[in-house]
Amino acid sequence: MLLITCPVTRTDELVADRRIRSVTNHPTHIAMHVECPACGRVHVYRTGRKLAAAAAPVREAPALVPA
């Protein structure tokens, strides 16, 4: 279940997983195309890091720790 805000009606909607139409993985974010139960349209919701944060180098761990 997802809680989205419909940009058309400006209402919060609880959306079932079956309403997710596609998920696209990008270098800076993940885009989900979700069918809105309020207006019936497909909206794109993005989640993830900002472009500047994604370009930052990854820190190396100071010491290895066993799992």
Describe the structure concisely:
The chain is mainly beta and 67 residues long. It has one helix at 51-55, and strands at 2-5, 12-15, 20-25, 30-35, 42-47.
Strand order of the largest sheet: 3-4-5
What's the average pLDDT? 86
Strand content: 35-45%
Q: Distance N terminus to C terminus?
A: 31 Å
What is the β-strand count? 5
Number of helices: 1
What is the overall shape?
Answer: elongated
Radius of gyration: 17 Å
Low-confidence stretches: none
Order of SSEs, N→C?
EEEEEH
Helix content: under 10%
Structural class: mainly beta
Total discrete domains: 1
- Please describe the biggest sheet, giving its number of strands, its sense, and whether it closes into a barrel: 3 strands, antiparallel
Describe the structure in your own words.
The chain has one domain (2-49). The chain has one helix at 51-55; strands at residues 2-5, 12-15, 20-25, 30-35, 42-47. The longest helix is centred in the C-terminal third of the chain and has 5 residues, at 51-55. Helix content is 7%, strand content 39%. The strands form two sheets. It has a three-stranded antiparallel beta sheet with strand order 3-4-5, with no helix packed on it. Strands 1-2 form a two-stranded antiparallel sheet. The mean pLDDT is 86. It is mainly beta. It is elongated and about 50 Å long.
Write the layout of secondary structure elements.
Elements (H helix, E strand, L loop, with lengths): L1 E4 L6 E4 L4 E6 L4 E6 L6 E6 L3 H5 L12
Antiparallel strand pairs: 1-2, 3-4, 4-5
